[in-house]
Amino acid sequence: ASLISEAIAKKGTKEPAKPTILRPNGTAPYDYLVVGAGFAGSVLAERLAAVGKRVFLCDRRPHIAGNAFDVRNEAGILIHKYGPHIFHTNSEEIFAYLSRFTRWRPYEHRVLADVAGKLLPIPINRTSLNGLYELDLKDDAKAAVFLAGRAEPVADIRTSRDVVVSQVGTHLYRTFFEGYTRKQWGLDPSALDKSVTARIPTRTSDDDRYFLDTYQAMPADGYTRLFENMVDHKNIRIETGVDHRDVENEQLARRTIFTGPIDAYFDHRFGPLPYRSLEFRHETLDCQQFQSVAVVNYPSEDVPYTRVTEYKHLTGQTHAQTSISYEFAKADGEPYYPVPRPENQALYKRYEALARAQDDVIFVGRLGTYKYYNMDQVVGQALATFRRLEKAEATAAHN
Ligand code: FAD
Ligand code: UDP
Fold first, then answer.
1. Is any ligand 1 atom within 6 A of the Cβ of residue 380?
2. Phi, psi of 297, rounded to the nearest 5 degrees
């Protein structure tokens, strides 16, 4: 305890952290220092603890669960502090793994876009086309013909503009994607990798679900509870409000798993990697329901925010009031999104090369590997990392 309280006490003082004090027999008190208690860090902590490793898990924020953190607000409504998190995956393995720590509430996500004075489904589907252009396309085949007539072929699809324009043409691109993307990323879609807008498909059916994955659900008691169950293990010591810097000289463990921004770990040696940040304006309103679906997107650049989320749709909570949040994107602040474009990937590769050159630190997660990953992908990456560590250890023991 004294080691940690010393570390915490050091925060805010100018004193550099004292190099430790190895244990009398020269061993570190933990096998792993895991930095960041989001999905990447918590899954690895859980897996390692389960095979008998001693883990010190810290997060600089005052809570676990990373960006998936949810909490009851002053009105008693469960909100997602860092914006709407909807779990979806096609992986049975990942769903089964997380199901050890939570029950689920079935939930299929639906999003409407506020365009041309109407609320229309996004991803664009047959209903969106009929609503926007006042058509009566009765089946998939008719919608496909309509879209084919609007699509503008692009020889080499590279950017987030290309991918949309080549499927639906300029007008639909401008209506649903251009403004939203400019606000969200501070960049024109033509300056972003195709992978960004390719997350949103185009449909000719009237299926208006945001995701088509096999498993779509919300943790029945919330994400934070899922994390509490995951890291509740005698081999895991959790310290929130503790930055890596506060403990890095303490020689707590021989190996570190780092899930914060990789460029920050290396003191931005090659310059900062761009991350997109967000500001959330949370409000509680004196009505039962504010909007008909959990999320309404606002593509127009005349509106400063990108989307509005009403949490009760996600959680199924009944309450006389309702809580919503507005999202405003910005360049500075807490890093939320890596920005997928070639020059950023090239800079990341330089940091990745530094990471590869040392085997006592392992980088995992959305910030640690600079990848625009969903929650399930981060869980998958963490499970794969654990398997790799296990294998390396088995090989070392054998030799
Ligand atoms: P994080 O959750 O960011 O965890 C990293 C942790 O490391 C943070 O808690 C941070 O405080 C800590 N940390 C960083 N540096 C340090 C340091 N130096 N010392 C100590 N601690 C440190 N995914 C979905 O699947 N579905 C969705 O609907 C969805 N919606 C999203 C909406 C928004 C607005 C955002 C931003 C993301 C969304 N995601 C969604 C993605 C999801 O949040 C991520 O995939 C996932 O949370 C990443 O987990 P992680 O552990 O890699 O990172
Ligand atoms: N996008 C858009 N209009 C929309 C929804 C999405 O232009 O109505 C684009 C935008 O560039 C966004 C990207 O598609 O950043 C991915 O959307 P998603 O909803 O997956 O973003 P996230 O939930 O990760 O913020």
1. no
2. -90, 145
Indicate which atom in ligand 2 lies nearest the CA of residue 111. Answer: 8
- For ligand 2, whether the C-beta of 227 sits within 6 Å is no
Calpha distance 375→346 (Å, rounded): 24
* Superfamily of domain 2-68+220-273+336-398 in the CATH hierarchy: NAD(P)-binding Rossmann-like Domain (3.40.50.720)
Locate CATH 3.40.50.720 in the chain: 2-68+220-273+336-398
C-beta of 309 in contact with ligand 2 (< 6 A):
no
Yes or no: say if 249 and 10 are a contact pair by the CB < 8 Å rule: no
Quick one: which of 66, 63, 98 has its CA closest to 82?
Answer: 66
The reply to whether ligand 1 has any atom less than 6 angstroms from the CB of 256 is no
Predicted model pTM? 0.95
And the tokens for 229?
A: 């169950």
pLDDT in tens, 73-127: 999 999 999 999 999 999 999 999 999 999 999 999 999 999 999 999 999 999 9
Report the separation in Å between the CA atom of 135 and the middle of ligand 2, taken as the mean of its atom positions: 26
Q: What is the ipTM of this complex?
A: 0.99
Residues listed for the chain? 399
Torsion of CA 51, 56, 61, 63, to 10 degrees: 50
List the residue whose alpha carbon is closest to atom 11 of ligand 2. 181
**Could you give the CA distance from residue 115 to residue 202 in angstroms, rounded to a whole number?**
16
Contact 81, 280 (CB under 8 A): yes
CA of residue 43 to ligand 1 center, whole Å: 13
- The strand pair at 275-285 and 337-338 is best described as antiparallel
| Rounded distance between C-alpha atoms, residue 368 and residue 348, angstroms | 10
Q: How far is the CA of 336 from the centre of ligand 1 (A)?
A: 7
Rounded to whole angstroms, how far apart are CA atoms 261 and 278? 16
Per residue in 143-170, pLDDT tens?
A: 999 999 999 999 999 999 999 999 999 9
